[in-house]
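[Meeting: bench + compute handoff]

Bench side (C.D.) handed over the final construct sequence. Compute side (W.E.) agreed to return the predicted structure before the next meeting so the bench team could plan truncations. Sequence as handed over:
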Amino acid sequence: MYINSMCLSANRRFPLGSKDVKVRKHGLELIHKAFIFAKKLGIRIIQLAGYDEYYNPNDEITKSNFIESMKIVCDLAQHYSIQIAFESMDTFFMGDLTRILNVVNTLDSPMLSIYPDIGNLTQFAKENFASEIELAKNKIVAFHFKDTTHDTFKCIPFGKGTVDFVKAFKAIFKINYCGPYMIEMWNKNEPNQTFEDNIKEIRDAHDFFEQKYKEALDDFKRY
């Protein structure tokens, strides 16, 4: 058994574009520790949260700070021989693959890729989902599988959101993608939840994934 990738979400609280140098420094320290952790466990990909800012307003300064911080992160990625990849986020800054690709091209690092979140991307590129996937196809290393709505990006039960998974999978099939998918799930840690409840949720999510994947594949083969 191996762990292919890990998600580092701490940069929401400690964004790399913050105007507070202490916040940026701590964000970089967390990423450095993540590289060491990943190296020890043999994890090949670290998914990064593409926030220049989250809890405070962003502007050209925060965007510039983010790029400068990411230059350091890209150097660390080369040092540890670990791939880093931006998730398509729940904010405009990196909500679609066009904007992510602009940052990736600016940084121009062989260690930097893209890790689209199907749910997030749907909300920012619903009408041009397929063209976004096509545009970024040579930089995609994995996908997050998650349901969302136009204003809620987590804790949506599969099938209760607005994501058209069959359409999304068919767009992914068109680029001949053969990499991994990660089912993203959230737990509210309700006091009345049992171990069995959690296992059932995981199984249901996996069954839902397989169902939508098969529906898309069967439809895709007809054309």
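W.E. noted at the follow-up: The mean pLDDT is 96. C.D. will use this when planning the next construct.
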